[in-house]
Structures are given as C-alpha cells and as structure tokens.
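User: I'm putting together a teaching handout on how multi-component assemblies are represented. Below are the sequence lines for each component of a complex, exactly as they appear in our records. Could you produce the 3D structure of the whole assembly as structure tokens, so the students can see both representations side by side? Please keep the chain order the same as the input.
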Amino acid sequence: MDALGRHLLLELRECNEAVLDDLKYLEKALVSAAEESGATVLDKSFHHFAPQGVSGVVLIAESHLSLHTWPEHAYAAVDIFTCGTTVKIEVAADALIRQLGSRDPSLLEVKRGVFVRERKLVG
Amino acid sequence: MDALGRHLLLELRECNEAVLDDLKYLEKALVSAAEESGATVLDKSFHHFAPQGVSGVVLIAESHLSLHTWPEHAYAAVDIFTCGTTVKIEVAADALIRQLGSRDPSLLEVKRGVFVRERKLVG
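Assistant: Of course. Below is the structure of the complete assembly, with chains in the same order as your input.
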C-alpha cells in the first residue's frame, strides 16, 4: 500500500525520569536519532517548561521528529514522521527508546497520504 | 479516559495546490491556527523544498503543530498535538482545513499518555 509518509507514534512509559527534564540531553538524543536513521537535520527547536518537562521538534529534510516529556509521569510522547525510502525510521525509534530509558514502550505506525479513491489497495 | 495529550492527525486531500507550495502563506496559516485555538506560540521552523513542497513545525506551550505538503498530490499531512484543557484543538483543525482549501479532509484523534496499568478506564 503506497503511502507518502510513515509516521511512528511512540508512547514511552517508565522512562528515566532524570533525562526527561534535561533539555540538552533530549536535544542531543533527538538530533542523534535523526542522524543515525539517515535523516538530514534542517532545524531544531526545544523548550523547557516550569516546573518541569521539555518539548522539542527537529525538522528534517524527510519531515520531522518531536517529543514532549512529563517527568512526573516518567512518560514521553515521541513522533517520528518521514517520507521517502532513505530514512531507517526504526533505527530512530530504537535509539530514542534506549536514550530515554523506557522500560514500557509501545508504538503505533500510521501511513500518511494514502489515496484510496485513486488506486486499488492491492496490486 | 484521562490522557496527557490530544493528538489530531489530519489528512488533507484535494487542497488548493497553489497554497501548498507557499511557505509564507503556510507559516501564517499554522501560526494563526495555533493562536486562534488559544495556544501560545513559542517558536516556528519552516522549510521549502525543491522543486516543491513545504514542511513546517510550530512549537507551542501546549505541544506542537506540524505540516508537510505535497503540492503534486494536492495533499497535506497536518498534526495538532496539545496538552492541557485550554487549547480548542478543533478550532485549529477547522482553520487549517479552511486555509488549505481541502475538499476531502479526514481526521484521526489519538489520545497520548494514557496509563492503563495504573487506573481503570471507567470510573
């Protein structure tokens, strides 16, 4: 089934709480995950919230990665959205699960840009 | 069912093709949609691709909005991710459907950060 984009929604529970409030660590983790997966980083934007929590987005030539953390719940919501065939999206997912120390990760993949009316889904 | 975040995935088909390649228009549309919905814009990052297409992310105090456009398919993938109760997420979705002129929009909502093991889903 052809799709323009692949979008992974990662639910990272039971993370290492200390890193979830560390903007510099998370920025490095998200950028490194993008680079390891073969993506080209174009820009990044991160913000630390009071009293805790970090949001960050990394714009890549192949779409984007984002994360939002709730240290008080040891939880992070991570999205990895790519287009094209060059980015190894699972490499980025594995890297972020590892970097955030999630002991209870789950993942949903959504295909984006599938045009059902214009084509058959099979063949 | 309590969730830390609400995440709308918008599939915008049959958009106005001209605006899908107009970075400045899309930047204004995404920022305006965020502001109209009650979100606080922290940062933004947009990129135009050759020969066509735009990617953009807007970091908000309540999470993020993103878009990726394929003018050749008259298609845009838009995400609106919010936490808390102050942002009227549907207002942002309606605004973007209208601004991009989508005549065949669809929408998926995903609740992010639901901790099933720690609580009952009902009551």
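A couple of points students might notice: The mean pLDDT of chain A is 95. The CA atoms of residues 62 and 85 of chain A lie 9 Å apart.
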